[in-house]
Write a structure and sequence with these properties.
Blueprint: E1 3-4, H1 7-27, E2 34-40, H2 44-59, E3 63-69, H3 75-87, E4 93-96, H4 106-112, H5 124-132, H6 140-151, E5 160-164, H7 171-179, E6 186-190, H8 197-201, E7 206-209, E8 227-230, E9 234-237, E10 245-248, H9 253-256, E11 262-263, H10 271-287
Parallel strand pairs: 1-11, 2-3, 2-4, 5-6, 5-7, 7-8, 8-11
Antiparallel strand pairs: 9-10
Helix pairs in contact: 1-10, 2-10, 3-4, 6-7, 6-10
Length: 288
């Protein structure tokens, strides 16, 4: 039976580290780090995520505000708001909560961001630095996965990491992080057009599932002793639950955990790491 990689415990350790670092920073005479979160519209999931980020920031001593705008805001006005935050020396990190309304081109708004304040690592310059290995911000979820592996004592050097999913948020940046010196994995990225997928996933020493399909990775797709990182968060109907559903990952946890050496649960695995790394990035933005 696999050892559970406890994202809650590891994220709590990171938050404590950030809290202590912020305390020392402020005690040395500096102001507290400040994060500006831009929220457009009334997407319930986005609003919930933002509340969680604000609560976590406050707990570690990072100041933050959520700047909320109507969904009808123009692309130009939103770009101007982001640019004003760029110019404000009191703002260390800027986070634009995605998705934005359909009439706004996310790439154009993100393109206005000052990369030095881009704590989500979405700006093209931030992504380019990531690809060529220049030190900077790392995207929160992929960086959180690296933290899970490192802090769980899982060897990555020379290991074959298979990533199922090629999104700009997880798959692609994670591939680059896994290739970095010091991590030194051999990386294969699979996607919806990959042929003979299970033949590839069975070669994985480390398997990362990030495709958004409930229980997609089954026992027959993995080898004995594999390390499994499940990024998926999917709702499935469950009449036994008061809310009528439960959350599951992209991996059939019950079956795959019998073969894996380590596995992340859903919830409680990768999810908590995202905010923890965001806090790390915000402190880094304030102190660089």
């Amino acid at each position: 039976m696999a050892q559970i990689i406890d994202g809650k415990a590891i994220s709590a350790a990171i938050r404590l580290e950030v809290k202590e670092a912020v305390s020392d920073w402020v005690a040395a005479g500096h102001r507290a780090p400040y994060l500006a979160v831009v929220l457009v519209g009334e997407n319930p999931a986005s609003a919930s995520y933002v509340r969680g980020k604000a609560k976590a920031a406050a707990e570690v001593g990072i100041e933050s505000d959520t700047l909320t705008y109507d969904a009808s805001i123009s692309e130009k006005d939103l770009q101007e708001i982001v640019d004003r935050l760029n110019q404000d020396d009191g703002v260390d990190g800027i986070l634009i909560q995605l998705p934005l309304p359909d009439h706004i081109d996310e790439r154009k708004v993100i393109g206005v961001l000052n990369p030095a304040k881009d704590v989500d690592c979405f700006h093209p310059e931030s992504v380019g630095n990531l690809v060529i290995g220049i030190d900077g911000f790392a995207p929160a979820t992929p960086a959180g996965i690296i933290e899970l592996l490192v802090r769980s004592g899982i060897e990555t050097t020379g290991k074959h990491c298979v990533i199922v999913g090629r999104s700009n948020i997880v798959g692609k940046p994670l591939a680059n992080l896994m290739l970095r010196k010091g991590v030194d994995a051999t990386v294969t990225v699979c996607h919806s057009r990959t042929q003979n997928l299970s033949e590839i996933t069975k070669q994985a020493d480390i398997l990362v599932a990030a495709i958004g399909r409930a229980n997609f990775v089954t026992e027959d797709m993995v080898k004995d002793g594999v390390v499994v990182i499940d990024v998926g968060i999917n709702r499935v109907d469950d009449s036994t639950r008061e809310r009528g559903y439960r959350l599951v990952g992209d991996v059939d946890f019950d079956a795959v955990s019998k073969k894996a050496s380590h596995i992340t649960p859903v919830p409680g695995g990768v999810g908590p790491m995202t905010i923890a790394v965001l806090l790390q990035n915000t402190f880094k933005a304030a102190t660089n």
